[in-house]
Every structure is written in structure tokens, then in C-alpha cells.
């Protein structure tokens, strides 16, 4: 070993990084799941109905989809010819790759999980993916991890450049106050939905009226603020019920319900079945 060696052929597990040049399904554990990783995915053919944090989208050919850890993803209908290429990053790898990236860029991707890139870009990215895969498989390379991290960082930098250029050239790229409020509302709900599920709390936090907040959410999601809050809480409850064997009482306490009966009533009124029936599947 060389003295003061800087580089090391550090092993990357599949939980930290995985790549597929072709696949007919998204790298999720189930049809409804909280993404534990960052998923970068290009649609090569066909289409799929995807819902990310209550936003529905028809994922089609020549689009990129970026899903971040903790986002709730529901994979619905998939066409028989659906084909994608993707790579996944564990949260700590994503943090390392995007270190010192502008917060506005990562925030943009959080709320705009799909992006149209075009056929030529997909062909170019297929070459880049192949290069990343080859480097990932080159386990004899002493600088494998460092090279791979740099390739991934370049990928995100190129993506940032494409999106930033489009923002500057689009006529509708002016600052949109309503969109900003909607994004702040969504972010606030995702952070505090376990403690607060009342529209007035969020309206007060955003210094606007409850009525105006509902108008904004209707414009951006087609339903009011209360339904957005409840739907997000229900999504989180569904994931919690399916992903653990914790008692209903523990989950009720975690979600700050006054008692188990109230949680069951809240869940059944919005889903149509009780939490126990949902867990049984």
C-alpha cells in the first residue's frame, strides 16, 4: 500500500447504488411505497400511470422521472411495452453527489418529478448510463468509487444545466407567487401532518386566509387544502400500516390521534375500510 493513500476501491452495495439499462418496472418494493432511495429513471418505451405525493402523471417515452427518498410513490397501470433505464442512490450517496448544489434546483426536482427531455437526449443518456454501469462493474479499479461519484455528479450538473436553460427560454418562467405558496404549503404539510391536519394552521403559517389557500391548492392539484392534507396523511398511514407490524395504538400515538377509535374513524371515512381490514389486504 502506498503511504497516505487517498483513493480506495470501496465496495458499493446494491442498497447504495444500483443501475439497470433496461427494465420493465420501477425499482420499488410494492405498488404503493415510500421511496427509500433517489430514483433517476428514463422512459424508453410505453407508458405508466405514476402518482408521487398525490401528483398524478402519465410517464411516457422520452421523459425523465426523479424521485427522492421519503416521497410516496404509487405505481398504477403499466403498458405491456413499458421499458425504462434507471439508477438508484441511497440518501447518503445522493447527499455526497449533490453536495453544494443550489437548493433551488433540488427543490425544483422535489416538486417537478418528471421532465420532458426528448428522444436525442435519451439516446445521449443511454451512452452515459452505459459508462456509469461499466465503471460500477469495474471492481478492480483502484479509483472506482471516486470515478463513479464524479460521473454521477456530472450527470446531475448536466441535468441542472438543461433545466436552467429551459427555465430561462420559456416565456412562462416569471416568478409565480401562487406556485411558491403551493410549494411551501406542500412542504409544510409533509413536515407537520402528524401534528397538524387543520387548514387554518397552514393558512396562518403562510400568512394567508384559509379560503385563499384552498383556491391555490384547487388551481394546482384540483382539490382543496383540507383534502390535500387528509390525502397525504392517509397515504402516510397506508404506508405505515403496510410496512410495519407495529400496533394500531402505537401508530395512532405517532400520528397524534386522540385515541385509536378516532384514527379508525378518520381512516375508514376516507378509505372505506378500517385500518385492520387494510392491513389484512
TrEMBL record:
Keywords: DNA-binding, Transcription, Transcription regulation
InterPro entries referenced in this protein's UniProt entry, alphabetically: Homeodomain-like_sf (IPR009057), HTH_AraC (IPR018060)
Official protein name in the record: AraC-type DNA-binding protein
Record flagged with keyword Transcription: yes
PANTHER family, sorted: ARAC-FAMILY TRANSCRIPTIONAL REGULATOR, TRANSCRIPTIONAL REGULATORY PROTEIN
Keyword Transcription applies: yes
A molecular function (GO) term: sequence-specific DNA binding
N-terminal signal peptide: none
Alphabetical list of SUPFAM superfamilies matching this protein: Homeodomain-like
Organism domain of life: Bacteria
Gene3D superfamilies: Homeodomain-like (1.10.10.60)
One protein family per Pfam: HTH_18
HTH araC/xylS-type domain: residues covered: 183-281
Amino acid at each position: 500500500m502506498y503511504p497516505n493513500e487517498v483513493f480506495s476501491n470501496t465496495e458499493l452495495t446494491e442498497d447504495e447504488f444500483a443501475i439497470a439499462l433496461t427494465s420493465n418496472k420501477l425499482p420499488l418494493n410494492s405498488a404503493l411505497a415510500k421511496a427509500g432511495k433517489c430514483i433517476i429513471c428514463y422512459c424508453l418505451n410505453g407508458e405508466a400511470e405514476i402518482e408521487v405525493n398525490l401528483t398524478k402523471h402519465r410517464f411516457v417515452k422520452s421523459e425523465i422521472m426523479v424521485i427522492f427518498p421519503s416521497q410516496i410513490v404509487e405505481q398504477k397501470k403499466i403498458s405491456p411495452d413499458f421499458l425504462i433505464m434507471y439508477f438508484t442512490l441511497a440518501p447518503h450517496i445522493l447527499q455526497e453527489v449533490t453536495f453544494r448544489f443550489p437548493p433551488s434546483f433540488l427543490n425544483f426536482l422535489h416538486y417537478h418529478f418528471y421532465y420532458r427531455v426528448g428522444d436525442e437526449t435519451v439516446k445521449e443518456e443511454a451512452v452515459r448510463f452505459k459508462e456509469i454501469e461499466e465503471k460500477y462493474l469495474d471492481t478492480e479499479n483502484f479509483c472506482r468509487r471516486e470515478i463513479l461519484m464524479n460521473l454521477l455528479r456530472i450527470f446531475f450538473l448536466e441535468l441542472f444545466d438543461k433545466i436552467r436553460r429551459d427555465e430561462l427560454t420559456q416565456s412562462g418562467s416569471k416568478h409565480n407567487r401562487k406556485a411558491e405558496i403551493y410549494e411551501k404549503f406542500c412542504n409544510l404539510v409533509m413536515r407537520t401532518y402528524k401534528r397538524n391536519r387543520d387548514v387554518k394552521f397552514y393558512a396562518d403559517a403562510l400568512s394567508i386566509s384559509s379560503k385563499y389557500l384552498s383556491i391555490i391548492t384547487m388551481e394546482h392539484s384540483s382539490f382543496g387544502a383540507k383534502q390535500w392534507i387528509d390525502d397525504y396523511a392517509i397515504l402516510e398511514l397506508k404506508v405505515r400500516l403496510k410496512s410495519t407490524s407495529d400496533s394500531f395504538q402505537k401508530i395512532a400515538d405517532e400520528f397524534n390521534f386522540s385515541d385509536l377509535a378516532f384514527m379508525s374513524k378518520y381512516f375508514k371515512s376516507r378509505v372505506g375500510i378500517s385500518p385492520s381490514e387494510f392491513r389484512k389486504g
